Amino acid sequence: MTDSPQAIDDLIALMAKLPGLGPRSARRAVLHLVKKRAHLLIPLADAMQQVGETVRECVNCGNIATDDICGICASERRAIGEICVVEDVSDLWAMERSNQFKGRYHVLGGTLSALDAVGPEDLRIPRLLDRIKSENVTEVILALGATIDGQTTAHYIADQLPGITVTSLAQGVPVGGELDYLDDGTITAALKARRAI
Amino acid sequence: MTDSPQAIDDLIALMAKLPGLGPRSARRAVLHLVKKRAHLLIPLADAMQQVGETVRECVNCGNIATDDICGICASERRAIGEICVVEDVSDLWAMERSNQFKGRYHVLGGTLSALDAVGPEDLRIPRLLDRIKSENVTEVILALGATIDGQTTAHYIADQLPGITVTSLAQGVPVGGELDYLDDGTITAALKARRAI
């Protein structure tokens, strides 16, 4: 951009790297920030600084936290003995929003993938096996995506855990979903797992 | 969000205020930032800090600048005597991208609007009239939006400037545009302004 200040160009280039923003929307966002300097730009810079300085990974489960141990692992109100294995922190958040699971989590940080050469030691799988021993875990809930890689990872983990109950989330019709819009695979899964009412 | 660190929640709430991002995409962006702390989060915080400290409005034209006078107003290569009046800094940037106009700009900061009670003194119109006198301006190009408010503003400014050439951008078929997709108003305008070839 000719003649626009270097600081602005730099900020636009960085903002454009955020998921969901491209060069055009980054420009729009930066102009908005400049106009709302006191109410948005300065607080946002401070909040990022704050997150950059304080937020790290929980050494136990991989969740993001401001201490070495995250709020969930540290909480005494969370049931021990149950671990819900998720791919990413965003999945952990999604589980927490449903407000149903009262145990603890383990964030793998991805899925096994032959294509991308991701093996068990690239994920937090060894740490999961340690935790299962040390925390007297009796049930492992695999809340992994219903993708090929997600299911491969689920099978791999289940194979490592003889003698422990390993479950996975049910597959079926989403609540509020219309059959007409569902893919064949989901309908097949829902039909196979049909229940008496 | 239960159990996610306060610093993260604060950052998500601020990010969600950016145009183009909602609560869901703000969450996604923040997770991305946390994962790319060294490459994105820290540089972004610094760039925002930098912009917050250095960027201000050009006292002459209203463009954003790091000095009291913006690069365009300060440049000796820009023609004096021609002022292009735009609504917003983003419009100035759009004009600059076309790389055609070699004069100087004046950013109004909005358009006159009876509905939103925006009068001439709420915009940078008095300053424009001052500049036209002091800079010996001979042509004012009104590059305002083809909206009701934009056109009202254009007429208001033209009325204030007897004896000066006031022009506005041509209306017509956009380059690369197909007639089939154009609205009636644009086709009417393009037909009225037809030229011999």
Automatic annotation (TrEMBL), chains A, B:
InterPro entries the UniProt entry points to: DNA_Rcmb_RecR (IPR000093), Rcmb_RecR (IPR023627), Rcmb_RecR_Znf (IPR015967), TOPRIM_dom (IPR006171), TOPRIM_RecR (IPR034137)
Zn finger limits (C4-type): 58-73
PROSITE patterns in the cross-refs: TOPRIM
Keyword annotations: DNA damage, DNA recombination, DNA repair, Metal-binding, Zinc, Zinc-finger
Native organism taxonomy: Bacteria, Pseudomonadati, Pseudomonadota, Alphaproteobacteria, Rhodobacterales
Family named by the database record: Belongs to the RecR family.
Any Pfam family hit: RecR_C
NCBIfam families per UniProt: recR (TIGR00615)
Domain of life of the organism encoding this protein: Bacteria
Source organism per UniProt: Loktanella gaetbuli
PANTHER family according to UniProt: RECOMBINATION PROTEIN RECR
SUPFAM superfamilies: Recombination protein RecR (SSF111304)
Described function: May play a role in DNA repair. It seems to be involved in an RecBC-independent recombinational process of DNA repair. It may act with RecF and RecO.
Name recorded for this polypeptide: Recombination protein RecR
